Amino acid sequence: MGDKLLPLVTRHFLIQPQSVDKLWEEEWSVTLRDDADKKVGRFHFEEAGIDGEVTLLLDIEPAYQKPSLGAEIYSAIASFVFKFQELKVVRTSCRHEDDDLVHSLEKAGYVRRKNSDGRDFYSITKQKTSWTGLYMILGLVAGLIIGITISNLWVGTFSGIIIGTVIGYLIDKKA
């Protein structure tokens, strides 16, 4: 599946692994999109797949550690990781004093979980879909049609709520 998604292309960067066969073991390179020979950073994953989590260790050249550029890289990596069904959390850490990296992580949607020994630990969690209202409306419409058909709107409303809940469960369990 990974070879269809690669390389990761962002507004400014091209992100690709050294080996498509070993996505989670090999080092990845971050290069400029306009100049693929100019390597501006590298990263690798650790503990991939353990309890649905993966740890990300990223190293970017100082000239490219601006919050907007860092957020672009962190967001692209998280989006890629979340395309794999079994992975639900991306974790990383940085020095507390590194303001640019802290802002990059926060801008990319990572949440600070704890601070230990001068390091901040961040993570981002794969979100479930939030279409509950749509599921319930679809269920209620189906239920009301059933209620009108059997001439009992109370049974139709009740069945609509059940249908909406079932639709939501079936669609959200894939996320």
Automatic annotation (TrEMBL):
Transmembrane segments: 129-148, 154-171
Keywords: Membrane, Transmembrane, Transmembrane helix
Keyword Transmembrane helix attributed: yes
Protein name: N-acetyltransferase domain-containing protein
Species this protein is from: Butyrivibrio fibrisolvens
